[in-house]
Amino acid sequence: MVDKTIVRGKTATQVMFLVCGLALSSWAPMVPFAKDRLGLNDGELGLLLLFLGGGALLTMPLSGFLIGKVGSRKVILIAGLIAALVLPVLLMVTNSYLMAGVLFIFGCSIGGIDVAMNAHGVQVQNAMGRPIMSSLHGLFSVGGLFGSIGLGFLIKMGLNPIYAAVTIAILLVSLLLLQYRKLLDYQKEKEIIVRFSHIDETKLSKDKFQWFRWSVLILGLMCFIAFLSEGAMLDWSAIFLRDHKGVSSEFTGIGYAAFSIAMAVMRLQGDRLVSKLNSHVVVIGGSLLAALGILIVVGSPWLSLTLFGFVLLGLGAANIVPVFFSEGGRIEGLSPTIAIPVISTMGYAGQLAGPALLGVIAQYFSLIIAFETIALLFIVVALIYKFRK
Hints:
Elements: H1 4-26, H2 31-38, H3 42-70, H4 72-89, H5 96-128, H6 133-156, H7 161-179, H8 186-197, H9 214-245, H10 254-276, H11 279-299, H12 303-317, H13 320-328, H14 336-364, H15 367-387
Helix pairs in contact: 1-4, 1-5, 1-6, 1-7, 3-4, 3-5, 3-14, 4-5, 4-7, 5-8, 5-14, 6-7, 6-10, 6-13, 9-10, 9-13, 9-14, 9-15, 10-12, 11-12, 11-15, 14-15
């Protein structure tokens, strides 16, 4: 019988993944408003967006240190409240320099809640003795869909954009405050870490220099590749469909939509898949399926088959990252508060680097070669996972 505290902790963790996805994706519909209000060109907007990613990257390693000191639920609460409070401000700022600062703070809050909720999810999973990470990441994707659609829907209904953002912020704060007490407290988290990572409790705060352990870095590298591929799909799939498949501009988002929906559905079913199969089948098989999907996208002469390739890509890639986070939380002799921030940071760095890498390859060769490079990288993930020690 699973402890009721753990069951409540699982429910609260699910809500936190939903909150993070909702908060981050609510920014997407705000981008055009921010661009027009600040009078930015595409290059200036791209530079400004780097502050969001930079804030997240800076905070992720720091979050691990804070989790080790005060527990993940306090980090989730503080980071979540900051994200909710900053969200409406993103629609109020009229100065580019101030906007950069606000975006940086927003990125810091997203980075903080991302690491803390994954660390908390891993500990709940270990305590329950069965996989839950795939469905948690699936709920993040669901939050992402609701966030990007919800804010736009409120604005479409005639609500002032700032009031719409305030409405989303109130929802985020309400969910955080309602679920905060159900998250595992600091003492319970330490008990789980000691039990499942086989660490002496007196050494929990002394293992901060073990970031460069090979078992952590190899998971981080594979996570870097997986996130790189996802980021590349987000920024380049529409351009690929327009320039190489002749899809009209208003429908070019259909490829990423097919990829995203397939990934969300597969992640919501992923825990059962991991339980019935094993991590090797999920990661190696998923990587090869994702690679096949990209090759179909590139080589198909028919749009319907191309979209099927995007679906295969989403299905294959869906549960790879959750498996990496799960394994990061079970490394012998190492606290998840060390492993999870490293894996998260390397993964997020890949998501930021992916679009730029594809841009360089497309510039010197072609976008088709760039997409084929992603397929090759998924094959590399399969090989690394199969032969790692």
